[in-house]
Amino acid sequence: MMKQEKPRVAALGVDPGLAATGYAVIRTRAQGGEACAWGSLKTSSKLSLPQRLHIIHRGIESLIKEWNPVLLIMEDIYAVGAFPKAAIQLGEVKGVISLAAQQQGVAVMRMNPTEVKNSITGHGRATKDQVRRAVKRVLRMQEDITPDHASDAAALAITGLSRHGHYRW
Question: Residue 41: beta bridge partners?
Fold first, then answer.
């Protein structure tokens, strides 16, 4: 009797930001996972807020259409009391990301940064560099996933896939 291979599943990790929204598409393999695409959706501060939000929405929508993820994992917002305007803008960014996922029928999962760091590095207060190296090790990659926002997004995708039972490392 032949062992049936599990179907490959993709997840889109997103580290939201108004100036730069990091993303990474991670797809499962028979053993482990692979990074399919990563980068950053950048917007100019010279544009209006609605224009910037539109760019992010369109970028996420395009990634979903190209890679057909079953899950979008987004970093949860933590608000800093000294910067309430930034927290509100970040909420708007998360809103357009969630909208793009909903419009394409993709489930959205939110994860706390310390939970992701603990999952991938074993330490909830890990540095960006430690996260980047852990992602590289888990995915058995030769190159780094950069910029940091994209590496964080890859960690989100790996952790989300694992929590949903699609991926083990």
Answer: 21
- Render pLDDT for 67-103 as a digit per residue (tens, 0 to 9): 999 999 999 876 666 778 888 899 999 999 999 999 9
At 165, list the tokens: 């039972």
**3 found inside a domain:** no
In terms of pTM, does the model score above 0.90? yes
Number of structural domains (the chain) is: 1
Which range of residues forms the domain containing residue 51?
10-163
* Rounded-to-integer distance, Cα 148 and Cα 136, Å: 12
Residues 6 or more apart whose CB falls under 8 angstroms from that of 23 comprise 12, 13, 14, 15, 37, 38, 39, 40, 41, 59, 60, 63, 150, 153
> Does residue 59 belong to any structural domain of this protein?
yes
Residue 5 lies in a domain: no
